[in-house]
Specification:
By secondary structure, the protein is of the alpha/beta class. It binds hexanoyl-coenzyme A (HXC).
């Protein structure tokens, strides 16, 4: 008996949709080990769990012979599935169909997937590989991407949104990823820019390669637009799976707790000798972090950008925690504009998604310099300050060595609602370092009668008065002075006590962060 006509038709249509842009374009897509849009989704989700919707959607454009170029799915695959057993929604642009361009019809599919993610309270992941808005559609294509920008904005702070840039991401289309929480790029394969090299050459006569302009290295190291640098499709998708393991499903849930096999009471005796006694000697703060978090595992975010501030996720006794730390080995850990913006954005993410923040402070202050002032260090430093002040999640701070001046106030101090503030016995909390302070306080005496003995005596006096954590502890600005070896247990114990913390800011439409 021959198969019913309707079933045959269904199978034929399905086959055509699964064929994407055809063999030739798929072969071109797969050069340099790139995966197709479908393969990417299969890799991203737990095996066999991805459920597609909108497979037969086509565009509705008739201009420029577009009726002949209507392919089922219209260059984007949308749907939901499970990642490490937890539901997530996603879309993947298919570059083999009209260069993965965003049309009115396919952006409606993406918006629908984002609506579902919001309603079901799940993360939303975009796999981008696109020439941008579909040129043939004119304003209809633009309306599609603009609708998506609005949805991304409304979803911000409600569900985690992650963007992978797996090929080109050109024009205004790059604003959808830019509105999401994290951007992952692939070295040599992904490019993001508002205007490409040819337009730049025509307008400004500048010659620039697309790699220099919008490659993964550029956006990870220089612009700070991207958060992660990977090297192929598989690494990019595996990283997203791992990132999600630190995040809650939405803003009213907590992050999943992982079974912890690392003893919470483990003391790290090597830490007692880890920080050099000489204040001017650098050390790698990441090594300190690794010595105290579960299994020594630190998942760093924006590793390549503004390295004087380290941010990322780790677990304490199985609980996901946001880490922010000055890095004494880069610019002596001073805060500059880039580091301030990097930290502020991360704090706001953690606060929006109920992830406690642990701050490791070793900061000589804000970076002095004409360029910093002209770049707006006042405004950018205020961003970091605003973000810390505003955050209501548990905030724990550990001063490992220096905490000077405004940077002391900013780095999760007690004054801006730090919940538990610890310091090591050698910590120095002061307005500034002894050399600078003595030069200012005794400026007149030093110019008139500047003997070395006088200066040394004043330096010693200053150090004895301020170069310790006890004055701050006497005033209650430091809750506890701890031995470095006990750091892990002290932090875990504080985090456990703060699990039930509830704090609210005054009702308002929104604050006016110094953007
Ligand atoms: C329609 C597009 C397209 C687009 C690419 N294609 N981009 N079709 N709309 N935006 C089609 C090409 O015509 C081609 O079709 C196929 O996709 C593959 O493109 P190629 O150019 O052959 O590929 P490649 O050499 O790899 O170059 C990829 C590319 C380039 C760098 C992305 O195509 C490019 O520069 N595209 C335009 C990028 C851009 O300026 N976008 C801005 C759009 S306006 P065939 O049939 O030949 O295979 C925009 C504004 C949004 O985004 C504003 C919102 C605020």
């Amino acid at each position: 008996m021959s198969e019913r006509q309707g079933y045959q038709d269904f199978k034929r249509r399905n086959k055509a949709a699964l064929a994407g842009g055809g063999k030739e374009r798929i072969a071109r897509q797969c050069r340099d080990d790139r995966l197709t849009a479908r393969q990417r989704l299969e890799f991203l989700f737990d095996e066999g769990t991805f459920q597609e919707f909108g497979r037969f959607v086509t565009h509705r454009c008739h201009d420029f012979d577009m009726s002949e170029k209507a392919v089922a799915g219209d260059a984007v695959i949308t749907g939901s599935g499970y990642i490490n057993g937890r539901l997530a929604h996603a879309y993947a642009l298919d570059f083999t169909i009209l260069g993965g361009s965003f049309s009115e019809a396919n952006t409606a599919k993406v918006c629908q997937a984002l609506d579902s993610a919001m309603q079901q309270g799940t993360p939303f992941i975009g796999l981008n590989d696109s020439g941008g808005s579909r040129i043939q559609e004119g304003v209809d294509g633009l309306s599609g991407v603009a609708n998506l920008f609005l949805k991304n904005t409304m979803a911000s702070g409600v569900i985690p949104q992650i963007s992978a840039i797996m090929g080109p991401c050109a024009g205004g289309a790059s604003y959808s990823p830019a509105l999401t929480d994290f951007i992952v790029m692939i070295d040599g394969k992904s490019h993001m820019f508002i205007t490409g090299p040819e337009v730049i050459k025509a307008v400004t006569h500048e010659e620039v390669t697309k790699e220099e302009l919008g490659g993964a290295i550029t956006h990870n190291q220089q612009s700070g637009v991207a958060h992660f640098l990977t090297h192929d499709d598989q690494e990019c998708l595996a990283l997203i799976r791992e990132l999600l393991s630190f995040l809650p499903q939405n803003n009213v849930e907590d992050s999943p707790r992982k079974k912890c096999l690392d003893d919470p009471r483990r003391s790290a005796t090597s830490l007692n000798e880890f920080i050099p006694e000489d204040q001017k000697q650098a050390y790698d703060m990441r090594e300190l972090i690794k010595k105290v978090v579960d299994d020594g595992y630190f998942f760093e975010v924006q590793e390549e950008y503004a390295q004087n501030l380290v941010i990322g996720f780790a677990r304490f006794n199985g609980s996901s925690t946001g880490i922010i730390a000055n890095q004494p080995s880069i610019l002596a850990g001073a805060l500059d504009s880039n580091a301030s913006r990097k930290g502020a954005r991360f704090i706001r993410f953690c606060d929006a998604f109920n992830i406690p923040i642990v701050t490791f402070t070793d900061v000589p202050g804000f970076l002095p310099g004409k360029q910093q002032e002209l770049d707006g260090i006042i405004r950018d430093g205020a961003k970091l300050l605003f973000a810390y002040c505003e955050a209501t999640v548990p905030k724990i701070c550990l001063i490992t060595r220096k905490a000077y001046g405004g940077a002391y106030c900013v780095m999760s101090s007690k004054h801006i609602r730090g919940d538990y503030n610890f310091a090591y016995p050698d910590a120095e909390i002061a307005v500034m370092g002894s050399e600078g302070a003595v030069n200012i306080i005794y400026h007149r005496e030093l110019t008139e009668n500047g003997s070395t003995a006088f200066k040394d005596q004043k330096l010693a006096e200053y150090q004895e008065t301020f170069s310790n954590p006890y004055i701050a502890a006497k005033r209650g600005y430091i809750d506890e002075i701890i031995m470095p070896a006990d750091t892990r247990f002290k932090l875990i114990s504080a985090l456990e006590r703060l699990r039930s913390k509830k704090q609210k800011n005054p009702p308002k439409k929104h604050g006016n962060m110094p953007l």
